[in-house]
Design a protein that fits this description.
Shape: elongated
Number of strands: 5
Helix content: 55-70%
Strand content: 5-15%
Low-confidence stretches: none
Oligomer: single chain
Number of helices: 11
Strand order of the largest sheet: 4-1-2-3-5
Structural class: alpha+beta
Length: 279
């Protein structure tokens, strides 16, 4: 197979057209050196290849690449390849633009001595443990190959990008949901006047329950309400039951979608478990 060169971004990165007329990004050491537009290039000369089918993604990537040092770009592309291998499934192509942009921004901040903090790191770790482990590998890759030591908070940010690409949802939406869960946890702690152990099983269960509640709401999925249990919880655990409704109202306001009453029942059970542990 051969590719026709459409644009030379730098010595190591080209935009080309495949024989099927799809526009592709070609990467290889010195692949663009002394090349001409419309010249053909053999597949054997290409180290890495990926397709950006969406026109807007192509344009964003083309604008981004010329401002990235070639050594850094190689590490970023290797990182995305690692993510693709670990996930073994669909990844939205937007990760090429979104994660590249994020990592370049993070590296520039580090070079200027600006601190990178992530107040929702523990929530992200609990919410997306699989993505978090992959993100740890990405940070390790950066440390070893680029000698750029990304702080621990970056693991959380990268994990959100991985999850965004896996579920095909906008990174800003994913980030909003993670921040909302962090806010809900703070409200629970204030109500109970306690600091919940972020390493505890109860914390993990609560955070994941909130995540799956949000996902059910977004899908419009209704859960059955066990009426007898609901009546019992209202009378036996009014503090937890009222708190669960306070949390649900915040979800409704943030998601701009209704939350079924049954969710209050299941959330009350989690809150009651936490309250019992404090006694």
């Amino acid at each position: 197979m051969a590719f026709k060169i459409k644009k030379i971004l730098n010595n190591n990165v080209l935009i080309a057209q495949s024989e099927q007329e799809a526009e592709v990004v070609l990467i290889g050491k010195g692949i663009g050196f002394k090349r001409q537009v419309n010249a053909l290039i053999k597949q054997s000369e290409v180290e890495k290849l990926f397709v950006l089918r969406d026109q807007s993604e192509q344009e964003q990537f083309k604008k981004l690449l010329p401002y990235i040092k070639e050594d850094l770009l190689k590490v970023i592309i290797s990182s995305i390849e690692l993510i693709r291998e670990r996930t073994e499934g669909f990844l939205n192509e937007h990760i090429h633009v979104a994660l590249t942009d994020h990592l370049v921004f993070a590296v520039n901040r580090l070079m200027r001595g600006m601190a990178i903090s992530n107040p929702f790191l523990l929530e992200t770790k609990a919410l997306y443990p699989y993505e978090y482990e992959i993100a740890k590998e990405v940070v390790k890759l950066f440390n070893e190959r680029a000698h750029i030591y990304l702080p621990e908070g970056e693991i959380g940010f990268i994990a959100l990008h991985i999850h965004s690409a896996m579920v095909n949802r906008d990174i800003h939406e994913i980030n909003t949901h993670s921040q909302m869960i962090g806010k809900l946890i703070q409200i629970i702690e204030q109500q109970f006047d306690v600091q919940i152990d972020r390493e505890s099983i109860d914390y993990m269960r609560l955070v994941r329950h909130l995540r799956y509640t949000i996902e059910r709401v977004l899908r419009g999925e209704k859960v059955e309400e066990p009426e007898k249990i609901a009546s019992l919880l209202k009378s036996e655990y009014p503090i937890c039951y009222n708190l669960s409704w306070k949390l649900i109202k915040i979800m409704q306001q943030t998601l701009k979608q209704p939350v079924y009453e049954a969710e209050a029942v299941y959330l009350t059970m989690h809150l009651q478990r936490i309250q019992n542990k404090m006694k």
